[in-house]
Predict the 3D structure of the following.
Amino acid sequence: MLRLRPYKECDSHVIANWIKNKDVFTMWGGELFGDFPISAEIIDKKYRVKNGDCAEPDNFYPWVAIDDENRVVGHFIMRYLNGNNKILRFGWVIVDDSMRAKGYGSEMLRVGLKYAFEIFDVDVVTIGVFENNDIAHNCYKRIGFVDRETVEKKPFNVIEMEIRKEKYNGIK
């Protein structure tokens, strides 16, 4: 069973290690972060929490997924997209390479949706997936996300997906 906890500085080395492979870096859209390889220092600078405030705007929440043995097995970001906090965006969803194809990604997203809909009380959760990442796209569909549109971006197009609270209530 996975649980979520807020990002800590010590997580940056774990996350950087997952994406040290150029193919994984590209598949998860790392080129939007900066040059390869991405370093733990860059990750921590992006996510560091100072005095209770994130380095990003107040609506930016980096999380990690922890397994029963307290290992960090996944990472993603939640960000509100509107002023009334009813639309939440999941972003930069990654899972440790050694944990892939074992259901951790799906479980991490399910726990994230539980937080979003049951604790944060949002109406819609959105997510984007690069068109070259069929594994993630299929995973999101299995969870209940549906395609909304394809947005042209460089170097890959992004498939925008969403799940609404009514759909979530029907599958939880």
Q: What stands out?
A: Residues 50-57 have pLDDT under 50 and may be disordered. The chain has one domain: 3-171. The helical segments are 11-18, 22-27, 40-47, 104-119, 134-143, 165-171.
